Amino acid sequence: MDNIVAGEDKFLKKCGKNGNIYISTEQINILKKYNIDVNNYNNLNELIYDIETILNEYDYDDLDWISSSLSELNYYNNVNK
Questions:
Q1: pLDDT tens figures, 51-78
Q2: For the chain, how many structural domains are there in total?
Q3: Which of 33, 34, 67, 72 has its CA 20 to 30 Å from the CA of residue 81?
Q4: Within 10 Å of residue 73's Cβ, how many Cβ atoms?
């Protein structure tokens, strides 16, 4: 179970090419619906960029939720304060 990290009420799974993207199973399943494989990305910024590219053309509420969630997670974990 090395690839599972406890979240608040969810479990986050380590994904990505380098294992440095933390994302819930629910989010992974939604991304799969849009043919987005988290394991093809080196970091969260790349993943968010691709999600936003799709959202620029289409209005998908579930993808928008993921983008917002991942952007918030990215901000709190990777921005120097």
A1: 999 999 999 999 999 999 999 988 887 7
A2: 1
A3: 67
A4: 17
